[in-house]
From TrEMBL:
Domain Knr4/Smi1-like: 40-155
Source superkingdom: Bacteria
Protein name: SMI1/KNR4 family protein
Lineage: Bacteria, Bacillati, Bacillota, Bacilli, Bacillales
Organism: Paenibacillus amylolyticus
Length: 165
């Protein structure tokens, strides 16, 4: 197992996060999701194999997990909620809708928050390192790089450099 992921899980539990570990370390994502996101960073796949739920004690910020991506979560939010909001804003503008979908094809949402407005973290799949970016309403597709990769992102959370509401 990835030490950074295990260290994060330990930190999150000690920090009052609600963590549910999976009983089996299998990862079964639906075919539609796999077709869209063919390659995900190994460290994030390790996280998904271990964790079935991970959210702050306030329940306002949470990591997306296997059930979310398979549309079988009890969450009121879809895993791609912010993409859906953007598509709704594009209304009947097919070019804009296509641009939105193309953008989200390159950014895999991994964490969502409703603390102090809608925001998210995503892995940038357009580069080899899988940098993690942050976006927020109203322009979800305007993002800022916050970490070099998923392990670095977890380290920034545990060090307090990224406040996860």
């Amino acid at each position: 197992m990835d030490k950074v992921v295990l260290d994060f899980i330990t930190w999150a539990e000690l920090s009052g996060w609600m963590i549910t570990l999976k009983s089996e370390p299998e990862l079964q994502l639906n075919q539609q999701w796999i077709a869209r996101y063919k390659i995900i960073p190994a460290e994030y796949a390790s996280f998904l194999r271990l964790v079935s739920q991970c959210m702050t004690s306030s329940e306002q910020t949470w990591f997306l997990c296997e059930a979310d991506y398979n549309n079988s979560s009890i969450s009121e939010f879809h895993w791609n909620e912010y993409e859906l909001i953007s598509l709704e804003a594009a209304a009947n503008d097919d070019v804009w809708k296509s641009e939105i979908t193309s953008w989200w094809d390159q950014y895999l949402p991994i964490m969502m928050s409703v603390h102090d407005g809608y925001s998210f973290y995503a892995i940038d799949l357009s580069n080899e390192t899988g940098a993690v970016v942050h976006g927020e309403e109203p322009e979800f597709e305007e993002v800022t790089k916050v970490a070099e990769d998923f392990p670095h992102f977890l380290q920034l959370i545990t060090s307090g450099s990224i406040a996860a509401g």
